[in-house]
Amino acid sequence: MVIVLASLLGLFVGSFLNVVIHRVPNGESVVRPRSRCPGCGTQLAEYDNIPVISWLVLRGKCRTCHAPISARYPIVEALTAAVFGLFAAHFGWVWVLPAFLYLGAVGIALAAIDIDTKRLPDRIVLPSYGVAAVLLGAAAALDHDWHAAARVAASGVALWAFYLVLVLVYPKGMGWGDVKLAGVLGMYLGWLGWGSLVVGGFLGFLLGGVVGAALMLSGRAGRKTKIPYGPYMIAGTFLAVFWGQHISSWYTGILGH
Prior knowledge:
The chain is mostly helical. Helix content is 70%, strand content 0%. The chain contains nine helices and no strands. Helix 1 runs parallel beside helix 4 (97-117). The protein is globular, with a radius of gyration of 19 Å.
């Protein structure tokens, strides 16, 4: 039941994320005006704003002017539903689940914006520190797990400081937005454990390096091409949610032999 409810919630959150992804980089309100067709400006009716279904019924076109509607809208909605469902399946009905659902939502929005604009807006990243602190802190208090609360704070500072050193040593390697995001991701990885913090941070670099190398080998990017790094940081964190501790235990087991 929790998986079904989380997935349904993800569909509607994903619909809102489409608004966030489109408007936040332009400095626009995410509340007003209501959703409109980018072609003719017609305000969308409620029945044309149902996640995924409306796009399929309309065959990816505006009901009024028949202008094409990007397939990214249902993709973001379906992806958010999938991430919410997977997090619900992994954690179950526990106090920390709302915190990770927020991570799923904000991670998808930031990844899409970074791909589009090569920026990670402070308007989303900075408030996420407060949201993460409240949600993770509340979960720790309700579970009476003060070690987890301390680990969240320490991990957030640690990953932020690590990225700060990287950007100071090699400013062309990444942007300040990545540094700010690192602190938020570090808090979530810290909740999972020290092993997940290391694995999640490493996976971000691994994914970014593999994709960057593939783009250069295919001729789609050069050494000076600016590649958004935020999506790989977020993907590494998501993977660490499911497999971070397992990978960490496996690796330390190898070292033990």
